Amino acid sequence: MNGTTDQTRHQDRVWSVAEHLDDVLSKIGPLDPIELQLLDAQGCVLVEDITVPVALPPFDNSSMDGYAVRAADVADATESAPAVLTVIGDVAAGSGELPGIGPGQAVRIMTGAPVPPGADAVVPVEWTDGGTGQGPADTMRAHSAAPQDAGGEVRVHRPAAAGAHIRARGSDVTEGEPALRAGTVLGPSQIGLLAAIGRGTVRVHPRPRVVVLSTGSELVQPGEVLGPGQIHDSNSFQLTAAARDAGAIAYRVGAVADDAETLRSTLEDQLIRADILVTSGGVSVGAYDVVKETLAALSAEEGTVEFRRLAMQPGKPQGFGLIGPDRIPLLALPGNPVSSYVSFELFVRPAIRALMGLPEVHRPTTPAKCTEAVASSPKGKRQFLRGSYDAEACTVTPVGGAGSHLIKAMAHANALIIVPEDTTEVPAGAEVDIVLLG
Ligand code: AMP
Ligand code: MG
């Protein structure tokens, strides 16, 4: 067998959706970790175990506005026979210098303020007369760190047990305890914890930079008037939005004309800022299918992009390879808007999420009852129809037809209905698997 026959065979073979996806994912791994500011790391995967450097809370503090007291002094307090304590000062949140409390004494304390030495309980202000000293009678001077004039009194009407309304040092986390493990996806609460323990930056797999470019000499930027034969470029917008939605930092390059030299130089220019490249259009067998013509003919040094036919509808023609000196992954998607979007969801989104090192790269799928019959699904192809999923009823209704130009139907769908390769029709009421688009 000679090389040509081999190659012809290779190109002729039809790939399953799973085979193509496996091939893409087998050539993509998580991006090298970098140190990011906390908020820039949102949605990213942690690559280091984080240990708590100091206990939380770092000191015993009050969980109420009230009075720090000695529990023994209020043990017998009742409504009719309140304990009367001398108020010797104020402690606000942030107070550094703390008055020591002796027998018969109390200190006004605000939520979050350190419990002063000598005190072992906090009596909420509601259990007292609010103080009758020279300070404001029944309102707390919250946020005021200024000491109240000493000599005032507070009547406490209920006993408080030792430790009452005190958040003990280390009751949240203790020093040296693991806070978060490597592999954790950083959501708002994880970022909150990192900030609370004093971490300003963390090491994570960064969000991939995705460069999206569409091809087609018929394409005009939205907002501009169409000439004869022209259409607005919708793919680059949809794909850029989808890339962002997948977690990437997305750069939309406008539409590139069907010209090999322009495409080649645009890709070369974009390589510098790309962790992954996505093109739309120009991958079929037409005379102006410039993406395929250009990328299938790269020199070994420039990279390798393979064009293949997939057993799927929409989205049969697909290109995938690694280009440039850094071997950046490139996915060449078909140009029909529904085809390019479905291809993105099936192949590019998992690739982006694999670059981020996320544990779950796929959209969730779920079974649902199809409310309408699907007739004549192509045999031997996995079909992805647009559907409207009703989570409460667990039903899905096809939206629009199978046409891959039906942009409006796509915009009114929230799921893809999967019709497997060997299924040619789905009766109304039958169960189907659907991909939830979120
Ligand atoms: P192609 O794969 O380049 O042959 O394009 C297939 C179909 O999709 C043609 O009808 C194109 O006009 C249309 N198309 C290609 N690119 C875009 C795009 N960026 N936005 C909207 N439609 C497109
Ligand atoms: Mg085209």
Question: Topology of this protein?
Answer:
Layout lengths: L2 H10 L1 E2 L1 H10 L7 E4 L7 E2 L3 E2 L9 E2 L3 E4 L1 H4 L8 E9 L13 E5 L11 E4 L27 E5 L9 E2 L10 E3 L7 H9 L4 E5 L3 E7 L3 E2 L10 E2 L2 H11 L3 E8 L3 H11 L5 E5 L9 H7 L6 E8 L1 E2 L3 E7 L4 E6 L3 H19 L9 E6 L11 E9 L4 E4 L8 H5 L3 E5 L11 E6 L2
Parallel strand pairs: 1-19, 7-8, 14-17, 14-18, 15-16, 18-22, 20-24, 23-25
Antiparallel strand pairs: 2-13, 3-13, 4-12, 5-11, 6-8, 6-9, 7-10, 19-21, 21-22, 23-27, 24-25, 24-26, 26-27
Helix pairs in contact: 2-8, 5-8, 6-7
The structure holds adenosine monophosphate and magnesium ion (MG).
Structural features, described:
With 438 residues, the protein is α/β, with parallel strands linked by helices. The protein folds into 4 domains: 12-31 and 207-355, 3-Layer(aba) Sandwich (Molybdenum Cofactor Biosythetic Enzyme, Chain A), CATH 3.40.980.10; 34-56 and 183-205, Molybdopterin biosynthesis moea protein, domain 2, CATH 3.90.105.10; 61-167, Molybdopterin biosynthesis moea protein, domain 3 (Molybdopterin biosynthesis moeA protein, domain 3); 365-436, Beta-clip. Helices cover 20% and strands 29% of the residues. It contains 9 helices and 27 strands. The strands form 7 sheets. A 7-stranded mixed β-sheet has the order 1-19-21-22-18-14-17, with helices on both faces. The chain has a 5-stranded mixed β-sheet with strand order 9-6-8-7-10. β24 and β25 form a beta hairpin. α2 runs parallel beside α8. Mean pLDDT is 93; it is low at 1-5 and 134-149. Adenosine monophosphate (AMP) binds at residues 214, 216, 218-219, 231, 233-236, 255, 280-284, 286, 334-337. The site of magnesium ion has 6 residues, from loops.
